[in-house]
Amino acid sequence: MTMTMTTPTTTESRPYLYAKYRYQISPLVYWVLQTSTALVWSLPSSHPDAPDVPLGDPHITLSNLVALSKFIGKHVAPGDVPTAILGLFLSVTVAVYDCQAALQRIATKKTHPDVENGISSLETFAEALGDCYRALGGWDWALHDHTPLDSLSRCLPLTKGNVDCLVIKEFVALDPPEASEADQDSEQETSQQAGPRLGHQRKQARPGKGKRGRRRKDKDTAKPKAKDIDKGPLPDVLSNRLLESFDVTLDQHGMTTGYIIAAYDLIKDCVEFRAYLQDLWYEVAYEGLHSAVAGALSNTALLLVQNGEDFLSVSADFPGRQAFHSVVSTVSSVLGFGAEREVTGANKGDTDLMDAKEMLLLHTYHDLLDFITDYQKNDNGKPTKRMMKEINNWNPDFDLRRATMGERLKWRRAYTINWLYDLASVLSNRLAQVTEVSAKRPGGGISRKEAQSARVLGLSSFAVLISLLATPDGKVGIRERILPHHVFQLQCIVDSLTVTKGWIHDLPKGHVFIAPPPADKFRPMRDVDLFLHGIGDARPGILTGFERLEALLRIEANLRPTSKKNPEFQETLEAVREICTQFLGKHPALGNRSRFSTTDSNALWHYSPYLCGVGLADALDAQFVAILYVWGHQMEPVMLMHLYHFLRQEGYLEKPVDLFESLQRLFPTSFFPNGEMPVSDHGNALADFLIDLENKDSRKKGKWRTLSGSGVPIHLTIPYESMLVLLREKSWNRYRVPDDHVALSSLLAKLRIAQTEHIIDHVTGKKRLKQTTLVKRAKAALVTEGLAEDLAEEKLLALADALEGVDCMQEQQAEDSHDIPPEISDCEWFDILKVDLTADVDGDHPLCGLNLAEVTWRMVNIFSCIEGELRRLRNKTYLSFCNDKGESDSGKYMYKETDARMLLVPMAMVNKDVQFFEVVAKTLAEEFTTLPDLIYWRELKLGTTGRSTSPQTTGHEATADATSASTVDKNAVHMDHCAVIKGVATEDGTMLIWN
């Protein structure tokens, strides 16, 4: 399979179109300039056909790039131009043509002065690159079996040193016309220049050097040609320039074309990600997808938009042009309309214009702009009278199917502005309360807890942003402060409501309207309420679980009064409980001052599925991390898991216990080093693991985390494999999820293994996978399961080979005439993450969906029951660690040392205390709790894959705006529609795709 210049899956960012363009154009320009420098230094200064081009400037115009390429091609023997350089020209040309073609496809038929400026400038650039390619002999490769792209892949990465190795320094010897004496005189001046310049600058001839001189020279034909004056070593005037500084300016369109590429890439992401997320919220409302999964994927998409936006903000090429207004104005001009043109008056029926504004998020942008403008007019945080007339009396039950398009837009605009007022009020009201309280305090300081109270769980950054935007800034205008990711996130917030009300914007079909889901099937707070309150007494929620655990740990603290960890436990658990009681599903600062108070005073949450999703994702992360922190110090869960494994292996437990079997499957690396369960010497293996945890804690070698939503720092020593927690920890960047933490059962791990580089073993001569951390882990797991090491290697290699040989769809092959394998798109990566997140939250690997507080409470209780029975039997191992006073009161049996309980189980295993084992086995066998009893949700989704089908409409449900509600193109690839793709089915039924 041909390698492409794409960012590997293990890097920290994905390959953006503009980044790839800059990554390729810079070494290309550098090579042309360096080769031209070597060429001019090798030729006589009198050579007449050299273009007059400066070679010391890293910026080169397009016309000069073409001229230099032709000049090099004229003086280089056929086939001497490195094929990697030809591949670079070809790759850049393809990228520019793709961008130009995409803009051409979406451009309207209306004439607009900027359409030609935008699209034609890209076309001119691509054609000029093609001229360079031909001049350097690129067409000679047309009939070859392999292309220059194959050679390019072998030169990666494109460092300055690698490009220097490709610079040509030997050229075809040509006999130029005889140089005049004036030309020869100028050679001395040329040779003394610090930086070479192609082209001879003629000096005025000296007296006596006119026609008479030439006639004398013509007569003396036998006279040898004067030699060039020695120019010395080849100068390197570009050595101090960074490779990234080399670029092409397209004459007067230089800035415009580069900006079009960056702006188009950013808007394209916004449009594609918005469509994908609308499908997600449809699945949440109509098909039962968990809202935390949709929230996590929304955060992931937002990060990609922010990263794409960073190219505009940090690039010196686009100073002051990173605002949404600037970006969308550039793209909208290519589409044939201005960003500020309103749908009113004569153009009221212009559906092309209306759909284009919807596609470019312009309606939401104007709503945000109008909110900020209106908010700044009043000092009380309330809308102006004029705005109130427009947004008052918003009806959540408005029938969108029977309304006009104008009425729908007004309804959505009223919701957006009202919701933004509520969001701004949360922060402003809470900050006012905190400031008032702190002013009465000596010193007037604000505590961390008070500062953290001014937050909106899952959306704190956006809430702060809205407050800052609503605050007047005399130096920067409102438009310049609104960035693309601000508008994109607000659009996602608004879409989460409109989709769950039956309104979906589909790019191919237009606006689609269907009946909202039944109230008993979906509410925005559906999953939040289950998480908080559970299902009756039998299935408690997080609040009950944490109350029970905190009470039990206080009792445990009395048994070990010298423990220093209990106060830290209490702070951590209290922080999570406060998050869940105060900031998840409601906010105390809003009170009854909601703009929606006539219908719902808690509308900030009740009317925002997006906020419920991202808030619940943060809460799930917080409770998971808090309990893992407890497990790292309260060792009962770890000791019981080791005991259970030992008792099963030694035959003390004949039947498996569901609770422990489930935990053993879900948390292999949390309870056993590297997930490998010991097969002998169990006591010492447990002791070593516990000591390692203690050492990590004392030396602070574990992982520091800030508890989501609280700012409380905690130190984790227990490893984990939760996809949601790993993504949250890495700021939702999938590229940064480390190989040593990703679960081997995850689809992400399987795809990473399948994309691992193949290398040749120098000893055996066989092909094998590069030994990455993930490959080593997977191989070790297969060996542990009983597979021989060589067979484990072959199995992993077969997985990678199968994916490598997958062909893309026939239509895609026809469209792509270049020998470049297709990449997995961002939306397909979202599908992959959705599989793993669903498994993690409410699927077949529910680490985050498990009520871990309840699990910990049960396991500590089990340990207490074991101790009670050991006391009754006066077990020698147990009593050796206790201050036994011979009384039956359990309070009299206090451990001698703080860590005595941690040593109890390893000592019993080393001493082979049969009585101890029998007591533990009997207690564990009486534990009938199953995994479903400890899940927050009503049911688990087993075997979930990919995207579900999009909404279908029939008859009265569909409007004239669309003939079908399908929001997925007929050629799209679905992970659950394997018939339209080539794929590799693994043993567990997972379908690995390549499209």
TrEMBL record:
Polar residues bias locations: 946-956
Annotated signal sequence range: none
Record-linked Pfam families: DUF6604 (PF20253)
Region of interest (Disordered), ranges: 177-233, 946-965
PANTHER family: DUF6604 DOMAIN-CONTAINING PROTEIN
Annotated protein name in UniProt: DUF6604 domain-containing protein
Domain of life: Eukaryota
Domain DUF6604: start-end pairs: 58-310
Ranges of Basic residues composition bias in the record: 199-217
Ranges of biased composition (kind: Acidic residues): 178-188
Feature: compositional bias, Basic and acidic residues: 218-233
